[in-house]
UniProtKB/TrEMBL annotation:
One of its GO terms (cellular component) is cytoplasm. It comes from the Eukaryota. This is carbonyl reductase (NADPH). Belongs to the short-chain dehydrogenases/reductases (SDR) family. The lineage of its organism: Eukaryota, Metazoa, Chordata, Craniata, Vertebrata. Its EC number is 1.1.1.184. Keywords: Cytoplasm, NADP, Oxidoreductase, Phosphoprotein. The keyword Endoplasmic reticulum does not apply. The keyword Methyltransferase does not apply. Pfam families: adh_short. InterPro entries: CBR1-like, NAD(P)-bd_dom_sf, SDR_fam. It comes from Anhinga anhinga (Anhinga). CDD domains: carb_red_PTCR-like_SDR_c (cd05324). GO terms for molecular function: carbonyl reductase (NADPH) activity.
Length: 276
């Protein structure tokens, strides 16, 4: 088994995830795994970095597929005995003008952004080694969507005692409410992406709390972040930040020094902790 530190980035064949891998290849003292759901696109991305003189390794990972997540988990366990850095970057967003019914958009978006990210965390967090770092890429949209929720929902999502099961129940309820066209009456905002990212931010707060309760001595730091508005296939060409600039905050959180005791359980943008 290798003692080399290992970092894993999800959804890294393009966009912000790819830029995070590029930065980690330059700064992380260990093996960096570029993961992608499609091996062809993933290997192509690895080759592109190789062309820049950077060495990333590839492993397949489709966060919608529990089997795929477990294959990666077993590989990391057997090869490295765990992992040191996990960047949950993979995500999707429907385009504004997409004509798919809102209920379909809600189900598909939540499936990847919330439930997929949660499944990766469920399988990989137990493997994170002491002094490890976990970064969940959320969005400022999670904050704005939170502000558009009913007071009752806002209180639940800001709660310091909400459990993961309760969060899963709420995210499931959102999808069900959209199917019955009652989501607005039930206090939800009209954005599936926004709700999915509320889920990612709140999940991060819960997971950080669980680490405090169960693994305090391990000094693992886990945060949610917003990369900013970044020129990628998701956000389009008008966004002000380049992918490398978008990678700055996630990489800062992934490389916090081992003597740092924070940020932890925070929502961070532009390397600054934001009020949730
Ligand atoms: P992007 O260019 O569309 O890249 C998204 C990446 O996620 C792609 O590599 C995609 O793979 C991958 N992905 C999607 N579903 C996946 C799955 N089921 N399993 C594994 N990988 C999957 O988007 P981006 O702008 O770089 O976004 C990266 C993250 O930043 C997302 O979480 C996004 O919500 C967040 N974010 C972006 C912005 C922005 O302005 N761009 C702002 C705030 C937050 P394929 O190529 O196979 O589709």
């Amino acid at each position: 088994m290798s003692n080399v530190p290992v970092a894993v980035v999800t959804g890294a064949n393009k966009g912000i995830g790819f830029a995070v891998v590029r930065a980690l290849c330059k700064q992380f003292p260990g093996d960096v795994y570029l993961t992608a759901r499609d091996p062809g696109r993933g290997q192509e991305a690895v080759a592109k970095l190789q062309g820049e003189g950077l060495r990333a390794l590839f492993h397949q990972l489709d966060i919608d597929d529990l089997q795929s997540i477990r294959v990666l988990r077993d590989f990391l366990k057997e090869t490295y005995g765990g992992l040191n850095v996990l960047v949950n970057n993979a995500g999707i967003a429907f385009k504004v003008h997409d004509t798919a019914p809102f209920a379909v958009q809600a189900e598909v978006t939540l499936k990847t952004n919330f439930f997929g990210t949660r499944n990766v965390c469920t399988e990989l967090l137990p493997l994170v080694k002491p002094y490890g770092k976990v970064v969940n890429v959320s969005s400022m949209v999670s904050s704005s969507a939170l502000g558009s929720c009913s007071q009752e929902l806002q209180q639940k999502f800001r709660s310091d005692t909400i459990t993961e099961d309760e969060l899963v129940e709420l995210m499931t309820k959102f999808v069900e409410d959209t199917k019955r066209s009652v989501h607005e009456k039930e206090g939800w905002p009209n954005t599936a992406y926004g709700v999915s990212k509320i889920g990612v931010t709140v999940l991060s707060r819960i997971q950080a709390r669980m680490l405090n309760e169960k693994r305090k001595g391990d000094h693992i730091l886990l945060n949610a972040c917003c990369p900013g508005w970044v020129r990628t296939d998701m956000a389009g060409p008008k966004a002000p930040k380049s992918p490398d600039e978008g990678a700055e905050t996630p990489v800062y959180l992934a490389l916090l020094p081992s003597d740092a005791d924070g940020p932890h359980g925070q929502f961070v943008s532009n390397k600054t902790v934001r009020t949730w």
